[in-house]
Write a structure and sequence with these properties.
Low-confidence stretches: 7-12
Bound molecules: pyridoxal-5'-phosphate
CATH class of the largest domain: Alpha Beta
Largest sheet: 7 strands, mixed
Number of helices: 14
Helix content: 25-40%
Number of domains: 2
Radius of gyration: 22 Å
Shape: globular
Strand content: 15-25%
Number of strands: 15
CATH architecture of the largest domain: 3-Layer(aba) Sandwich
Order of helices and strands: HEHHEHEHEHEHEHEEHEEHHEEHEEHEH
Strand order of the largest sheet: 2-8-7-6-5-3-4
Oligomer: single chain
CATH topology of the largest domain: Aspartate Aminotransferase, domain 2
Distance between the termini: 15 Å
């Protein structure tokens, strides 16, 4: 076969895809003089009208600094900002005290590494990761481990791109002081059995952080049922703005932790003799926050809720199946990450061309994908590839996007094979 295949993705549930697409103005933006097929959602998603309007509306009608003034605009800003915390807490089925605002997943993980883990680490202790972690869920642990003479270890990944659970289990030991797991791999798409892994770690008294960066926009997340000690995510991968994210943490942990950054808002009293800390979660939020980021994220999460996470997941699963079939028909193309339980992410290599060259050809045809190591260098080593091409889907993608991708990949073959 050397032609794009024809697929009709009939929605299984009421799902007005055309209306959803119309809600994302950037999807109408011509690129390279043609139609955009945006398949780089693992890096960041596009933003719906309602999120754009919430950001614009904040700066037009509410902008002032929060928490520290009595004037009307400051009250509006504070009400909107703290209201956003309630809306975000409701999405995660958590309490507002458990929702710490951060710059994103990366900062949330660093906060836990420095503020929670480092004071508890002794020489010889271990932090157990998996072989499919993003650098953001590796390097912060390495930094604190180095300061304490502790060690980061990782469970191996199988050929299909799953955590080798037996090996992971065998690595849990009295030395393990922290477990950190990605819920959905940004490179392989694998959905890890985090609930099961959390239960197993907890049975040994080990706290667990879940990296939910690639999960919250694609599957139902209930952090309290999951029983994660910490859950980190970024707004921009879930239809919200960049530079904002959330750390969910169990209240008892936050109460016991000392602040990791000092400044305004995180204090109760300050004197030159010493300072005392604000209540949780504020004691972890030093300085003027990203006010519009919080409002935009709350709006984005409500956008997800309104569409229905199950309907989103079903739609994306159909895209994954269709994309896998389309790409599977291309000679010399190998998909990396074939776990049965996968999110809508397809990473691949081709025998005829380097991922960078493939990405360049795709770009000429208006197909936006990511090429490189995707901040998962250990996975590249595991699969013995320098890089992959990654197509990652979101709610607004459709068969036309996949056909555009497939057509362009046939062109790659014609040019390079
Ligand atoms: N974890 C995973 C699985 C990711 O995919 C990413 C971003 O690509 C991150 C962490 C880091 O997210 P951020 O750069 O928004 O902090």
């Amino acid at each position: 076969m050397n032609q794009p295949q024809r697929f009709i993705t009939a929605p299984a549930v009421a799902f007005d895809l055309a209306a959803i697409q119309a809600d994302f103005p950037i999807l109408r933006e011509p690129v390279r003089g043609g139609r955009l097929a945006y398949l780089d959602n693992g890096a960041t998603t596009q933003k719906p009208e309602v999120v754009l309007q919430s950001l614009d509306g904040y700066y037009r009608h509410q902008n002032a600094n929060v928490h520290r003034a009595v004037h009307d605009l400051a009250e509006r800003a504070t009400t909107a900002y703290e209201g956003a915390r309630d809306r975000i807490a409701a999405f995660f089925k958590a309490t507002r005290e458990e929702i710490v605002f951060t710059r994103g997943t990366t900062e949330a993980i660093n906060l836990v590494a420095y503020s929670f883990l480092e004071p508890r680490l002794q020489p010889g202790d271990e932090i157990l990761l998996t072989g499919m972690e993003h650098h953001s869920n590796i390097v912060p642990w390495q930094l604190v481990a180095a300061r304490r003479g502790a060690k980061v270890i990782a469970a191996p990944v199988t050929d299909s791109g799953e955590v080798d659970l037996a090996a992971w289990r065998a690595l849990l030991s009295p030395r393990t002081k922290m477990v950190a797991i990605v819920q959905v791999s940004n490179t392989l798409g694998t959905i890890n059995p985090v609930a099961e892994m959390i239960a197993e770690a907890h049975a040994r008294g080990i706290p667990v952080l879940v990296d939910g960066a690639q999960a919250i926009a694609h599957l139902a997340v209930d952090v309290t049922t999951l029983d994660a000690d910490f859950y980190a995510c970024s707004a921009h991968k879930a239809y919200g703005p960049t530079g904002f994210g959330v750390l969910y943490a169990k209240r008892e942990h936050l109460e016991a932790m000392t602040p990791w950054q000092g400044g305004g808002d995180m204090i109760r009293t300050v004197s030159f003799e010493g300072s005392t800390w604000n209540d949780v979660p504020y004691k972890f939020e030093a300085g003027t926050p990203d006010i519009s980021g919080a409002i935009g994220f709350a709006t984005a999460l409500e956008f997800i809720t309104r569409l229905g996470i199950d309907a989103i997941a079903a739609h994306e699963h159909r895209l994954l199946e269709e994309g896998t079939r389309r790409l599977g028909g291309i000679e010399g193309l190998r998909i990396i990450g074939t776990a049965p339980h996968k999110g809508a992410i397809i990473s691949f290599v081709m025998d005829c061309a380097h991922p960078q060259d493939i990405g360049t050809i795709l770009d000429q045809d208006g197909v936006a994908v990511r090429t490189g190591h995707h901040c998962t260098m250990p996975l590249m080593q595991r699969f013995n590839v320098p890089a992959t091409v990654r197509a990652s889907m979101a709610v607004y993608n459709d068969s036309t996007d996949l056909e555009q991708l497939e057509r362009s990949l046939y062109k790659v073959r014609r040019l390079f094979a």
